[in-house]
Amino acid sequence: MRALVTGGAGFIGSHLVDHLLALGARVTVLDDLSTGSEANLDQVKGHSQLRFVTGSILDERLVDRLTAETDTVFHLAAAVGVHTIVDHPLRSLRTNLHGTENVLEAARRAGARVLVASTSEVYGKNDADGLDEEADRILGSPLKSRWSYAAAKGLDELMAYVYGQQYGLEAAIVRLFNVVGPRQTGRYGMVVPRFVDQALRGEPLTIYGDGTQRRCFGSVYDVVPAMVALLDRKSAHGRAVNLGGFQETSIRALAERVRELTGSASEIVYVPYEEAYGEGYEDMQRRMPDTGLAKRLIGYAPSYSLDEIITSIVAARGGPRLVDQAAAPLTV
Ligand code: UDP
């Protein structure tokens, strides 16, 4: 396999690069390093089958040139994290819409297959007990950045789907549900690395709202191999498939668990949503995946418990005792 990974220096992208190299693939990473970091690829730096290109998916000619040399594209580059979306709405829209169109168009020209990373955000406020792929999308006004992000990702999916219908592009879409693991930064909003860093630094754990909102966190180690397996499965082309974890938790319970697993004495504080994200922000109360389709297609069976996920992040940060106490506090 000759693979192009857009966003390959990001959290999920870099784990995917590790996995592809281990499978023997030749990998080109395209990343603009806006939220990703070269340090995420330290483990594979200098690998003979890896090439790193700094650049944007908005650069049509560059995307075209790199795609022409590959047979498989994993399109993960996107504006990610609630804080990024809220703080840079226009840039996020452009990246998520034009960027994806560039990638799909380049793949069509090259005859490459594509995996498009989408998100559980597309389901919006639907809080069903296990969202399957046919679940309705319940979105607020598109003028609210959170929902404009969901709208853009929904259009990305549609574009990939239509490229398949119209041009025969082999495209699979994955909807990722709160994927977490080592290398994920809390800088752009993601709650698990934020809580872990806060706990390790002895700072207060900041729960937004009242902490009764619920999520189901999935391990990057479960999700990444499934992405590759899905693209290999022809019956997964032309459809969107949920990927995520299996263990639901309230954010309050998550904060308590992080405190216990890090042995931290940090207090837990409650921050109003307006203070965290600005006026008019809407959170969803619950988001739980139904991963039955992935199970039927590729035997997907996520195995990492929430405790194991938290522990893997704590360990990657050097464990409770080794953390750099002098590190700058989180400012988001
Ligand atoms: N959250 C929190 N404290 C933080 C960051 C996030 O309580 O420091 C909450 C956030 O409001 C949401 C949940 O944790 O209810 C998950 O947030 P994240 O941004 O990780 O994912 P998403 O909102 O996309 O599910």
TrEMBL record:
This entry's Gene Ontology molecular function terms read: NAD+ binding; UDP-glucuronate decarboxylase activity
Instruction: Output this protein's name.
Output: UDP-glucose 4-epimerase
Q: Where is the NAD-dependent epimerase/dehydratase domain?
A: 3-244
NAD: present as a keyword of the record? yes
Required co-factor(s) are: NAD(+)
> Does the record bear NAD in its keywords?
yes
Q: Which InterPro entries match?
A: Epimerase_deHydtase (IPR001509), NAD(P)-bd_dom_sf (IPR036291), UXS-like (IPR044516)
The transmembrane segments are: none
Biological process GO annotation list?
D-xylose metabolic process; UDP-D-xylose biosynthetic process
Recite the UniProt keywords alphabetically: Decarboxylase, Lyase, NAD
One GO CC annotation, please?
cytoplasm
